[in-house]
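Hi F.,

I've been meaning to write this up properly since the lab meeting, where we talked about keeping a consistent format for the predictions we share between groups. The idea is simple: the sequence comes first, exactly as it goes in, then the structure tokens exactly as they come out, then a line or two of notes. No screenshots and no reformatting. I'm using this chain as the first example so we have something concrete to point to.
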Amino acid sequence: MHLCAGVILLLVPCVVLSVDRQKVFGNLHESASLPCTVQCSGELTWTRFQKQDDVLVRCSSVSCRSKDGFILSYEQYLKGNSSLTMLKADYSLRGLYMAKCVSETVCEVVFTLSPLEMTRVIAPGEAIDVVLPHTDLVDVSFTASDAVQPSNLQICSVDKEKIQCSPDYKERASLLNTLQIKDGDVSDSGNYTVQDIVNDETIAIVTVHMREPSPDIKPSPDIKPCPDIKQQEGVPVWVVVLMLMVLLVVVAVLVVGYVMHVRLRREVQQLRENAENSRLALLQQNGNLDFHVSQEL
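Output, unedited:
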């Protein structure tokens, strides 16, 4: 006798809610808005996919509470706008953000930063500085302005303080706050792209133009360059301050002397006028006295 065991499979239908995932580009150190136009009548929370236990914003019918660096006002929530505002974007805040109404995901937003774009014009022989927004596993590649050379050629990889470069750049490249490439040449003109390996994102693009020297103009060996400010830095600051103070004292003495001279001239003039008036009065008195004497005789 054989015993047979029967297995009954129950197929339970399930409903999968599709949430449109948006991608938002922000600018470094600026505010950014993660949009969510779904109106939530219950409790609304915003979290990061990597840290779902860390609630960034929690809103209810009573109030909204936000973590430092994020904000969603209560008035905004009551109006049905569930968008989250990031106050100061940086590279550590990149990633997937989720908004949940009660326990249902209603919005998903991938936040990233727009690549830093800059242009540098240098002369042959100068160093090329390729800015590194961060140094956590990034690749630096080069696309020459000359189409003959291969495009997007990887030249260096950076991992924090470690740097590995291709043979052509091993002796030229060094890591400071930037990736510095010594002895720039016309062949170095082009685009330098910094790629975040972990997030597979372009975080910086540096366009380098090489300024070619004019063959007709050659500096004369008899002409010495004008001294710049750095060459005159041997004068101590206190000497300059002392000279200014002496100059101010001299000016003050000259002004006081001039004022005293003008005042003395006025006083002398006044004394002369008083003496003249006194002399006239005395002569007048003498004349009157002679007149009376003659009448009496």
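Notes:
The first helix runs from residue 74 to 78.
The domain at 116-210 is CATH 2.60.40.10 (Immunoglobulin-like).

If this format works for you, I'll send the rest the same way.

G.
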